[in-house]
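Chapter review: from sequence to fold.
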Amino acid sequence: MTATPDTRPSNPRFSSGPCAKRPGWTLEALSGAMLGRSHRAKDPKAKLLDVIERSKAILGMPADWRLGIVPASDTGAVEMALWSLLGARGVDILAWESFSKDWATDITKQLKLADAKVIAAGYGKLPDLSQVSGDRDVVFVWNGTTSGVRLPDADFIRDDRAGLAICDATSAAFAMELPWHKLDVVTWSWQKVLGGEAAHGMLALSPRAVARLESHKPAWPMPKIFRMTKDGKINEGIFRGETINTPSMLCVEDAIDGLRWAEGVGGLKGLVARSEANLAAIANWVAKTPWVDFLAEVPATRSCTSICLKIVAPWFMALDAEGQAAAAKKLAALLEKEGVALDAAAYRDAPPGLRIWGGATVETADLVALLPWLDWAFARVEAEFAKKAA
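The token string follows.
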């Protein structure tokens, strides 16, 4: 049986959300938080604007785009976009993992848009992107957080499109290059690539999206936290740090700390390089490890953040669905018991396996230290379950 590895990851936090804090983080990073202050006061409001401006600069967002802090994490940002912008045209929805399927459900069953087409694919694959029409709106994730499948490019989106391209980029922003000229709405949350805290979303709007906001009135009632216009004009305050609801100034301080760290490691290029190095480390191991493979079937679509792995050992494949789920659960449990990988199990709706976060806050050395432990845990699961598959 595989020997117990000698080295352990310094940080075993490989969760895909909330994700690992940036290297060297301590509570001291929050000492400047504007606690006990109104978020509408001058200094706290300046902190909120700081998050917006630093984010735009690091991401290379075009100057004419608007960026705001909104309630309820990335989910809130996506829902705000869907409820506010859809209905003016037909909409294509790309769905290839859990969250994109959630957006498809919301559009077809909650908003009940009659002219909505779901273009779907199973875990590990991308849908047929050629079915996307530039005359319709399109809703999609850039990176499938629960499948480990990302878009290799945005060539399927026309430059002369008439519809809006609405992109949930929560596990892509700050780790992957986003082609802003192909997008109209982009959303993300603080707790992904920069390791921030929960409950706050970011909503970016192109001039085309703003024009839609000001020209289109949805057919349904709009909850207060979704309202971005007043008297037919966009509420500019939202994009200057005047949040719709009360933000946590502790979380705001943490977001600023993460952004400062991002600037210190080379901005977007440095962040992308860190994430891609993590993917490369796992890819090198997968290439020489017979029992495991990427869930993403095409190499160009493999995520460098939510790295999803499937077990392909013959004895595992011979198990029924219940047996596979039990074996994969045991594998993740062994890693957690040893304190070498916390929260590394596949997403609950995804095929049984592992999901290892490789975003920029994860040190490649920790991933390299983890890999022998994966072999160690697999050997123990194999010893227990292989006989059940015979």
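Two observations follow directly from the output. The chain has a mean pLDDT of 97. The CA atoms of residues 122 and 133 lie 21 Å apart.
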